[in-house]
Amino acid sequence: MSNQRTDNDKFGFQYKVSLRSETVKDNQNILDCFSGHGHIWNEVRKQTGLELIITSIDTRNDKSSVYLKGDNIKFLKAMDLGQYDVIDLDSYGIPFQQLEVIFAKKYKGIIHITFIQSSMGRLNNGLLTSLGYTKNMIKKCPTLFSKNGYDKFKYYLANHSILRVNELSLKKKHYLYFKL
Ligand SMILES: C[S@@+](CC[C@H](N)C(=O)[O-])C[C@H]1O[C@@H](n2cnc3c(N)ncnc32)[C@H](O)[C@@H]1O
Questions:
Q1: What is the Å distance from ligand 1's center to 136 Cα?
Q2: Among 13, 27, 55, 63, which lies 20 to 30 A Cα-Cα from 88?
């Protein structure tokens, strides 16, 4: 079991690096909204040899590196997103609220997403209501409406005219990008 988890993590990381390497060009500006320790983009830099200008955001508290500390929603709302070629949403869950801000601001560029729905995980009400499910329906049986979360997420993207995504999946983890 623990080996399997290690393999999933290893392949997941490689998938993330390879998808990002496909999209990036020299001297691009990247907004890394869930930057953690920046492992993914460090590896992209290493593998591609490209110069990348990265703005990192994270809620964690680490004085040894430079990044914008706090909830990325706050920064996404406040920042001029037009300066970024790529926005990275490498979340632990489903970055629905972040996408809502990005769509509302009519951002144009590449978005990378990590989508993970835990087995008991509920889909965000906003995502479900945007697909036509009413709050009453969801309240009656939240688990029913949270089934096939990734399919529903892609319908949500389709409602925003994103009909084609580039994706790699590993069990319940999905890594994808698209261009707006
Ligand atoms: C999957 S890890 C990111 C790993 C990272 N992309 C890397 O390359 O090392 C998710 C990170 O998101 C951060 N995080 C979670 N919610 C956040 C939020 N609302 N705003 C900013 N950072 C957040 C966590 O502290 C964690 O470091």
A1: 32
A2: 63
